Amino acid sequence: MSINERYDKVVAWLTDNELWEAFGSSALRVIMFLAIGRLIVWIIHKTIDRVILERESKRPANHTRRMTTVGKLMKNVASYVVYFITVMLVLSEFGINLGPLLAGAGVLGLAIGFGAQSLVKDIITGFFIVLEDQFAVGDVIQTGQFKGTVEVIGLRTTRIQSWTGEVHIVPNGMINEVTNYSINNSVAVIDISIAFEEEVDRALEVIRHTMITMQDENLINSPEVLGIQTIAPTGVTIRVVAECRPNTHPIVSRKLNMVIKKSLDANGIEIPYPRMVTYQRNEKGGVKDGA
């Protein structure tokens, strides 16, 4: 082929209207794909920001940092997914066959899924623990046989320290049921037993007066005296309940027991104690009572 023929062929190719129309149409579609992808990412980011702000307003200040981290993670995942789809659409405009690429990606994902099932399960469970705000660092929780304060929440494991000092590292995939003791207020329940011979009305009045004057930073409201809980052969049990801050009921219970004990002692009200009754025969064969 001569130089003139090559030149004429190039000129004919450059002046081909159908070619330029197809190129312009593809370019417009590519621009449209990019613009729509960018718009979708912007809408998703704004939606995530709104959801995160609503959740932050309902959580304590020390938990907002974790919610912000979740928001960034969700934004990144959404951006990667949208951009991946956009790139696939752009490549299809240039005539690239996407079948082998998608098939290769599917096989790779399937191999990773089968080879690391437990790892994938731990990561997915950890993500939803953070996303659903099931518990936070500093909360006292119980999962299975482990109970304690949450020290670290990771995407793969959660670290829990028990009140006796042991540290339990639990894979997130094993966390099926969780009891969180740090969300709502707790209730301290105190049962006080007094001797059967004591006047119940007087004991109730003394305990009520003591509870009204009770002051503690962990109390939400003044403790309430419910009344007689049980009656036993040697005594009567009076129940007192107190609403307190989350997971502070053991501390409040101990303090209330101490205050009530001192108040009963100050008013001469005795608690039940073991008693034994004996019978003695007199010289005439009769029975003489004794204690």
UniProtKB/TrEMBL annotation:
Gene3D superfamilies: 1.10.287.1260, 2.30.30.60, 3.30.70.100. It is found in: Cell membrane. It is a multi-pass membrane protein. Keywords: Cell membrane, Membrane, Transmembrane, Transmembrane helix. GO terms for molecular function: mechanosensitive monoatomic ion channel activity. The keyword Repeat does not apply. Its main location: membrane. Residues 119-182 form the Mechanosensitive ion channel MscS domain. One of its GO terms (cellular component) is plasma membrane. SUPFAM superfamilies: Mechanosensitive channel protein MscS (YggB), C-terminal domain, Mechanosensitive channel protein MscS (YggB), transmembrane region, Sm-like ribonucleoproteins. The keyword DNA damage does not apply. InterPro entries: LSM_dom_sf, MS_channel_1st, MS_channel_C, MscS_beta-dom_sf, MscS_channel_2nd, MscS_channel_C_sf, MscS_channel_TM-2, YbiO_bact. The chain crosses the membrane at residues 26-45, 73-92, 98-120. Belongs to the MscS (TC 1.A.23) family. May play a role in resistance to osmotic downshock. This is Small conductance mechanosensitive channel. It comes from Paenibacillus endophyticus. The lineage of its organism: Bacteria, Bacillati, Bacillota, Bacilli, Bacillales.
